[in-house]
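Quick one: structure for this chain?
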Amino acid sequence: MIRRFRYVRLLLSFAAVAALAIAGLLFDGWRQLHAPLRIDGQQTIEIAPGDTLAAVLARMNAQHWLPSARAALYLRLYVRWHAIGGRVRSGEYALNAQHDLLAALDLFLSGRTIVHELRFVEGWTFAQALQAIRANPLIRQTLADAKPEAIMAAIGQPGQHPEGRFFPDTYRFPKDTSDLTLLRQAYAAMQKALADEWAQRAPDLPYATPDDALIMASIVEKETGVAAERAQIAGVFVRRLRLGMRLQTDPTVIYGLGERFDGNIRLVDLRTDTPYNTYTRAGLPPTPISLPGRAALHAALHPDDGQALFFVSRGDGTHVFSATLAEHDAAVRRYQLKKK
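Got it. Here's what it folds into:
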């Protein structure tokens, strides 16, 4: 009887020791999973397609970011015990000391990657927007040195001229987003903005199609130095179209000159005929000349109803608007010829 009692006591002792050990392991695991990562400031980690959680943890351990070497084992056991489905998602992630391992796991499973920004500026040409894409090392380049015709075909718009077709805005994207993805997004944004503004356009405008309004908006964008003048400038050009007058706007001439433009527009340039020279040709140019923003689109479709047919720059970004040629000539003498 005594021997049996001793045996039971021994078993109970072993059980108590085992329970204490298990409790110690559970406590240590809880502590390791909730301990902050050993990171100074903010660090990034990239997860490649196909990477496993074990591979990611190994890289974090190599960087000495884990609370301890055994923390990775605890996290793998946690994932298995809780039957957490899904693989870690590829991408670029930001980590800091406010993350513990469970927060890092949630981040990797959620796909909340670092988001970068690329801005297309109002008034840029398509060439400038394309240059910004190609100069960004975070964007995956798939179009290489593709010509504009090939680019438009790649986004599903074969035969369409690219100028003015991409909405100027700030685009947010994760690293390794393709150039084609961003261009499709900007194209769709312009289509929507133009459709929205066209649906709410003022009556009796001299535009046969929304594309005509897009062309006008691109001219307004390039001519406007002060936002408050957009509708006035659009009004001048709309009245000229109605009267059959030539638009005579320098930005279209400059666009038509292309690389020949050296920064100074001369009389010979105004007399050099190109499809975009609105001094030598009537009506709108064949395509937009820039990427117009929403405000320029709105102005082109809601021009002011004044009487001005002319405007000249004061040299400070604003313009003097005139209803008669005599008034315009006087403004030119005051603000342009006197300055020269």
